[in-house]
Specification:
single chain; mainly alpha; 4 helices; globular
């Protein structure tokens, strides 16, 4: 599965907990938004993460 910023952004906008986690990553790690989104992808979606199925569903709609 490949990282797609547009799909990841949609997923974040649909889930408040992902949005909150994104903010937390930005502050704690001092990352800019794009890198924080990518980090969130690797922690919450990639490698059978809890949001992998929803991400794949959104990706199919693209």
């Amino acid at each position: 599965m490949k990282y797609n910023k547009a799909v990841m952004t949609k997923l974040i906008n649909q889930h408040r907990d992902l949005h909150d986690e994104l903010k937390k990553i930005k502050v704690e790690m001092g990352l800019e938004k794009n890198l924080a989104i990518k980090a969130l992808f690797h922690s919450a979606v990639a490698d059978n993460g809890p949001y992998m199925k929803e991400y794949q569903d959104l990706e199919r709609l693209q």
